[in-house]
Structure formats: structure tokens, C-alpha cells
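Contributing: when you submit paired examples, paste them exactly as shown. First protein:
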Amino acid sequence: LAALARELPWHPAAMLSVPLGAMLAVTAVLAALAERARTGEGCQLDISLADAATWLLAGSASAFTEEPLRIPDGPDRRMYACADGRFVSVAAAEPRTWAALCKGLDVPDLEGKLGASGEEAARISERLAKIFQQRPAGEWLARLGPLGAALNPVNRGRDVVDDPHNRARGTFVEVAGRTVPANPIRLGGPDGTRAWTALD
């Protein structure tokens, strides 16, 4: 069996089509209820797990269109390596966030360079990369975060569990001695006074 498994295509460890199909079904039900409330007419819903799984390939359209498709990246939207080997993700693609990034990195001359392309964008990216390599990721987050520079840590493995945001949100729970993601659906009181709690 082991030899046979090595000859098969890659087998994903998680059946993403199931939770995604469920979310699509819930979305469809809510849309149908809203339409019924507006028009008084019902409708039939058709949700396919196969369609849900295929929809996940939207970011890999080049595999079946033979045309490359990628999210545009530039100095304002990319990952940068830091002094401690960790990465930060920058998404400062708006004038406000780009200005905050330039201020925090002490490069005011780049503030008017948002949207640069080609060789100029490459030079700016290289310049920012050298700056980010001067400090650990935690220092950059502490320095740039309060400015609104649209900066986030790139977490790996246990870092995801230990991330302060995830800990505060209760994003992970212990089940039978194993750390797993909590149910992301959270319910609160109708008056907004009761704390939100994840469904069991």
C-alpha cells in the first residue's frame, strides 16, 4: 500500500470541500431567506462539494487556462524577511497605509512612490528589504503597527497558536489533549452585552 500511495497524486490532509461546502450552503440559505422576505418567493438550492473544491482552484487558474494569474505584488504588498529569520507581511497598498509605512521605516522620500512599477518598484522593494533585515519581526510590529502601516507577522506552526491575537480570540481549543482550531461561528446576545462565544 505504501508503494501504491507514492504513485498516487498528492492527497490533502484536510477535506476542505466539506466545511467550505457547508459555508456555501449556509450563505445560500441566508440569501434565499433574504430574497423570500423581499419577494415572498422561495427557491431551490443546489450546493455541490465538488464545485466547492473546484472553486478553491480560483487562484490557480493558470493550471487550466494556460494563462498566468497572480496577485499583484510590489514594495507595498509583499513579505519581508527580518533580522530574526521571521517574516512580516506588508499590505500597505493605500495612500494612508503606505504613508504610515514610509514614516515608520524613516523613508519619507518614498511616500510619493506608491504604485511604482518595473525597475523602480524592484529598487524600492530591495531598499525596504534591507531595512526590514535590520530588526527582528517583533520590533517592526511594535513600531509600525500603531502607525497603521498594515503590517502582520507571518506565523508558522506553533507561532499561530501562540499569536496574541489568536490567544485573545480563543481561536484554538484543546480537545482530547490535542490543540485544534475552535469553531469560528460565534454567537452573542441580541443586545450586544453578552460576550461572544464559539459554538460547541
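Second protein:
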Amino acid sequence: SLFSIGREPLSAYEVLRFFWLTIRRLCIKIIGSERLDRWLWRLGFFHAKSHLLRRIWTAPDGNRITFRPMEETIFKEIYEDKVYASCHIPEDGTIVDCGAHIGIFALYAARRCPRGRVLALEPSPLNRELLQHNVRFNRLANIEIFPWAVSDHRGSGEIHFGGEYANDYCLRPTFGDKSQISIPVELRSLEDIFEEGGILRCDLLKIDIEGSELVALRGGNRALARTRQVMLEIHKLAVDPREIVSIIEAQG
């Protein structure tokens, strides 16, 4: 078979992705990536793509999560690699999830703090729709969802994403990519989030915001001073890890 040479047969998703990327490359040669992605956005392609091939997975902690194929790596991070296992999440704790995506970590944390609360921030409408679905589906009343993008100030801004990776959003075009689509969003600093959420103590601040982590931390000195643990993903092409460490250590 063309799709199983030297390996196991490809899934339906992988076959469709192969054909889609082949067609995309041909279209880019003719009209360019920026024009192609803007046309696809206006036609509702990315919305349709977000709803196709969805699956449901039952996690070891009982969460039943609806996801898209590209989100499988997040399950592996949390449930196989156990990247959050070292974090202490008290039963009555307060967790702030910046970049909640479709809610895999938010649901994981909510199971561990049944008498606490999880604030899940996700500015992408496509991701947030699935986040809201997963929270309702699991009947977790201790998760609060907000549509904000985390920055160093309050205001209005834009998040950007590229056509091939329409589930990854950031506050600036990714590393010089000019084929980005922009969506208007509300911005909040960490201090705004803590103030509006009435957070006096944060037991765990999780940050995964695609290269904007340094900007977010710069707008949160008082919030960091009230935070016991920080777990974040660092994009080394966008920020200097030493600056991240310096800001966090300065707040104890």
C-alpha cells in the first residue's frame, strides 16, 4: 500500500492530512500562503476543520475529553510523561491556566482540587468552543473560562495563527511568518486576572502561550508574589530563558 510502506498503515486522519498538505503546497505556489489562508478563513475552512475527525478519550482520572488529532501530544505530556506530577495541587487550591487550549490540563487540575477553582484563559474561539464543551461534558463546576489573551497590560489586541497549525495562537506573528491570520482579542495582564478573579493566593500558575511568556510575566509582579508555583513552557526562539528565571526569582 502507498500509505503503509515501511511502517504501520496510516490512520484516516494522516491520509487526509497528507492530501491536504499536498494540495496546500500546490495552492501556495499559485496564489501564495497569505492569500490562501485568508480565503480559507473567510470560507469557514478552519472552523470546519476544527469540527472534523473529533475523537473522545477517557483519561486515567476519569475525564472524558473531546479532542482533535493534533492534541494527542498534550495527553502524552500530562498523562504519560507526567510533566505536572511534581506540582502540588491542594484539594482547595486555586489554579490559573494561561493558554488553556481545549482544557486538557484544566480538567486534570480540576479533578485534583474538587473544593478549589481553576481559571482557564483561552482567547482562540475555535479552542475555547472545545474547552467549553469539555467542561460541560465532564460537569466540572470548579472551572471558570475567560476569553482573554495574557499580556503586560489591559486593552485590545490580536492573536495570530498560520494555516497549517490553526490550533496554535500567539500575540505576534510566529517568528517572522508573514502568512498569519489575525483575530481581535481582549488583553489582560496577570495582575488584572488576579484582581478580577479575586485571587489572593495562587497555588499553581501554568503558562503555555506560544512565545509570549516573557511579556506576560512582565505584567505580573504582584501576581507572582502571590503565587506558590509556576509551570511554564519556554519558547527559546522568542525569549531568553534567563530572563524568565530572573523575573520569577525576583518575586521569591
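If you have annotations for the second protein, write them as plain sentences, like these:
The first strand starts at residue 55 and ends at 58.
Strands lie at 55-58, 64-67, 94-98, 117-121, 143-146, 149-151, 155-162, 180-189, 204-207, 230-232.
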